[in-house]
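pasting for ref
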Amino acid sequence: MSKILFLAHTEADGSLHKAAREALTGAKALAEGLGGEFAVGIIGADVQAAADSIGGCNGAFFGVSGEEFAAPRYASDLAAAEAIAKAAGADIIVAPASYRFSRALPGLAVRLQGRVDTHLSGIEVRDGKPVASRWYYRQRMEGSFTREERPWIVTLDPGCFAPFEGEASVEVQAVDAALPAMRTKVVGIQAPSEDEQTIRPDASVLFVAGAGWTKKQGDGATHVDVAEQVILGFLGRTKASLGSSKSLVDLSGEGQDVISFLTHMHQVGQTGATPRHPKGLATCCHGEEPHVVGWRFINERRAINTDASCGWAQGKCDVLYVADAFEVMQAVNELLNG
């Protein structure tokens, strides 16, 4: 009989991230499909609240807790994950593809002499076997595979399953994790405020800026400073996530005036990110295929462009506003100001 372990870590406030509860849904479905035993392992400073928040999943709970496991460190995360995996006797371990586990779990596979596959888009049971799915070629093709080696460790990307909901009080079996000599000490976290962060994976709207924001306008001059104010004003009021076309972020290397807060981290498309948001709004962007391929997981698409025959008009968006993005977004910001 297979033993499935769902592995998670707590956030700074002791809760479980949405991506972890999504991975739990996938792990629980896998266990039910295989007819195997199901267990949950949680790592954090105090894991009881996190365990109670998902207690309805009806698994055996294991926990490694303590202040030394609160902050993400490879050595402590690996030691905790190894201790839980051995205590649970799991042969398939499912975890969210968080930055913390993406770093530590490949090491766990080495220690357990198993195999690991990261950033999967799904896992299910076919013909009595666990089958994983993953995107290939910049998410243009999806492939499926299985493995015979055990333990098999998999991490699931966010957005592939519905978040698990089901609170219940549970008893967590404490597991001791032997820590090696630690060479890293976490003394604090410095992070920009929420308003300064423009990449927001959990936002309901993706706002994409194209190169048109930096081009000459009707008066024959560029207005990059105005563009920055308009874009930041919209992001500040809506808490949307900011993306960019490749052509706009590449302008910094061509000596042109650029939007100061855009980097290649914002780039959406074939050579950039493929974000997942319910809605997306493209502005001053032609909607060419290498860029639009990054909109694969955007459910509702709208665009603003002065060209009625731009790429967005070729069936790539739900609504195209043929208008000046400066005027439209300034009017939108005024409406948002009330």
